[in-house]
Amino acid sequence: MSILVNENTRLLVQGITGREGSFHTQQMLEYGTNVVAGVTPGKAGQEVHGVPVFNTVQEAVAATGANASVIYVPAKFSIDAIYEAVDNGIELVVCITEGVPVNDMVAAYHHVKTKGARLIGPNCPGVTTPGKGKIGIMPGFIHAPGKVGVVSRSGTLTYEVVDALTKAGLGQSTVVGIGGDPIIGTSFLDVLELFQNDPETEAIVMIGEIGGDDEEVAARFIKEHVTKPMAGFIAGRTAPPGKRMGHAGAIISGGSGTAAGKIAALEAAGVAVADRMSEIPDLLKAKFTA
Amino acid sequence: MNIHEYQAAEILAKHGIPVNPGRVASTPEEARDIAAEFGGVVVVKAQVHTGGRGKAGGVKVVKNADEAYEAASNILGMDIKGHTVNKVLIAKGAEIQKEVYVSAVMNRPARKIMIMASAEGGVEIEKVAEENPDAIVTRDADPFAGLHPYQAKEVAFDLKLEPSMVNGFAAIAEKLYNVFMEEDATLVEINPFIINGEGTWQALDSKMSFDDNALYRHPETEKLRDLAEENETELEAKASGISFVKLDGTIGCIVNGAGLSMATLDAVQLAGGEPANFLDVGGGANEEQVTTAFNLVLADPNVKAILINIFGGITRGDVVARGIVAALNNVDVKVPLVVRLSGTNAEEGKALLSEHGITAGDSMDEAAAQVVAAAQA
How far A63 CA lies from chain B's nearest CA (Å)? Predict the structure, then answer.
């Protein structure tokens, strides 16, 4: 069974009646995701693309047995939506929203951990398991089922590498966009652990970027625990220090978080790090046969 | 978002943290009047959003009002690392019995807010981290309960402060954490934090930065923004929902997505060029956004060629291509333009562009090489 999204996923969409929520509900349904409920306070009784809408997560879970949720609500309401989901027993929460205040994420991050739930994001494209389902906003049709696990901090770079893999005949087991914020619920390390233990994943692609030290932490984990062949890429070699490069978390501060440091750490852990995104499929093919 | 030292001091004072008296001046005359009012030794300090003011000659200790006038005359208008000095802070001279460093900042690996302190007051913390990391003391605040008083005291004892100084330090460290949370800061730094002639703690120099994502709930902070300190194009971009960072090269870049934008700049450099900017148009890449993007990029006279790099995901390539064509009717682009279009409906998009005389490729690497060649031609 694939990681994160599988046959047992019963998805709830928080903010389903909004423009983004409604559009992506349709996209997820078309991709085969089991979307069982939506929540927008005050809109209970409506339907969005045939999915019943409830006022609260509590009502939605009671009526439908939802066990995963995806959040499309505006940034100022996203933290509350995360609490509402995990407090009502949702095991997997994917927060797509960009612009969540970072200091609010501190308590939310630790709250999710104490509840034993998993948060992906915020500011992420979500999770796709090709052929089975997707949670979030990734374009489904660029994917192909296969054996490569993909994990990335960036949305468009995820699409870029998935597209390149698919065109090279390398299908994906699961694709996880962990998000571009300074504090995110699930780190590279967490996803690498899932991929390492997932019998359907035989090789891994990791796309990092400047800022923070999650890539370095992941490199230490890879060295000790990951036996599957890996290729990677780090964006932001040309980024100047002290400037946020689009993502709130993509900033080099006080000499740490540089691309050079991350590339060196990953290479020392045995990851084939590409200079160009386009080289990833070949680097991977040199290490394993799909 | 960053603010000036004098503004940070005002915020700290509002939260009950003792700060060294000071007032801001925009002219040498004002500087002289403030210095006369304080009497005795004052420090004239350039107010700019960058470090290294002292080394650049932007901080002067003077003995009287006339010297303050002279120092302010020299410092006002000075260029410090590309920042023009428009204001000086006239701060009362202080006797320093003891100086330390203290700040509240995100401990990103721990996903917690921490208090960070060092016995080496007045030295940049990055320098201490490099040369004497053992001198740095940190405690992570409880994510739910905040900084416990015992943690603040532990920091004080680890700094080897004299027992009589510990409670005073700890009380202010707790306040520092509260300022950080209440103001939605990303950094609150006091350096140096001193014991003055009267034997009490005082912030001699302070620095604050704020979380842009939380500014919506702090309109009073937004008012502190110094437009002269910010890149005009970056502010204009922000108003249109575009992320833009000015760089020093000649290749203008228009890309969808932050990660892909960074990777595009890297590709340009690998191809032998230097990017003029980072620009993420966001998911849409429609006529309006692309028009704005062209205007932002072309505002830089150094731009010799433009690379548009779009990966069509949910937004289809043909829609993006229509946006580009329409934008080219709105903006007179006189420099060479290279387009890379991939992903959803890329073929339809490319066909549409070629009808308008624009050749679009599939490969990011080739596009980077082409745009670098075009800029050098």
Answer: 32
